[in-house]
Amino acid sequence: MDEQHLSLIDSHFHLRAIEAKGIDPIALLQKMQENNIVGLEIGLAGDDLGMRIERFGHYDGLQFAVGIGPWGVDKGRPSIEVQIAQLEEQLDLYKAAAIGEIGLDNHWKYGTPESQEALLHRQFDLAQDRGLPIIIHNREADEQFIRILKDRSFASGGVFHCYQGGDELAHLAIEKGFFLSFAGPLTYKSNTQMQKLFSSLPLSSLLLETDSPYLSPVPLRGKPNTPLSMIHIYRFAAELRQISVAELVEQIEINYHHFLTFLRE
């Protein structure tokens, strides 16, 4: 099948952050439609779901997630209670496909590890109450997530987005019903361990994303990233798996549908 007729799925991108980079999100969405690119638009705060749906929700093929990342406990942010109340209000008023991105980040060291985990667990509970999958941000926190995953179940599943963790966490996450989503770093020459892991995992547990405006894939490194770069990630990933782009597109579509509807085979 001709690549230009394939429908590509970007399971994680940030339109407001793309706009902050000087890119018109409305023009981008129109271009995405022309190129058959759909996917999941992710917020970076717990109080903006309604605004994002009102601005972008009339474009076909878009789903929306809302959650409070580990930056929510950084200095100067409202209390966890205030932010959770705002998030719950948004979920009452608007339809979300998932809660996220949420998680742990030991690189930037927002707040304390304890406060990050407290915020994370509040949103785990909220996702469970609402029957929604979760989207996890993990930066240099494999050991914490291994401990957390061993202690909890996740009835509605979820995804570890932009996966850059190790093999142990990857296999445990899949065992717990999560998908692993890979982004532009998969295409970087230095990431041989990530490429090896990606090649070895069950194809039925994988998703792809841009995480745009961040992490442009080869051959676009150094340039602004958007969902339009998905074709480069698909091509590279298909080559790693030694399958055609069309075969990968078909499997990713199945996986994405399962992620959104909580189905597990």
Mind telling me the CATH superfamily name? Metal-dependent hydrolases
Taking Cα atoms only, what radius of gyration do you get, to the nearest Å? 17 Å
Q: Describe the biggest sheet?
A: 8 strands, parallel
CATH fold description: TIM Barrel
Apparent shape = globular
In whole angstroms, the N-to-C terminal distance is 27 Å
- CATH architecture assignment: Alpha-Beta Barrel
The structure class reads alpha/beta
- Tell me the fraction of residues in β-strands, as a range: 15-25%
Number of strands: 8
The SSE order reads EHHEHEHEHEHEHEHEHH
The residue-averaged pLDDT reads 96
> What is the CATH class name?
Alpha Beta
Q: How many distinct domains?
A: 1
Helical content stands at 40-55%
Number of helices, where a helix is a run of at least 4 consecutive DSSP H or I residues: 10
Uncertain parts: none
- How do the strands of the widest beta sheet line up side by side? 1-2-3-4-5-6-7-8
Report a brief summary of the structure.
The chain is α/β, with parallel strands linked by helices. The protein is built from ten helices and eight strands. The chain has one domain (3-261): TIM Barrel, CATH 3.20.20.
Structure keywords:
265 residues; alpha/beta; TIM Barrel; 10 helices; globular
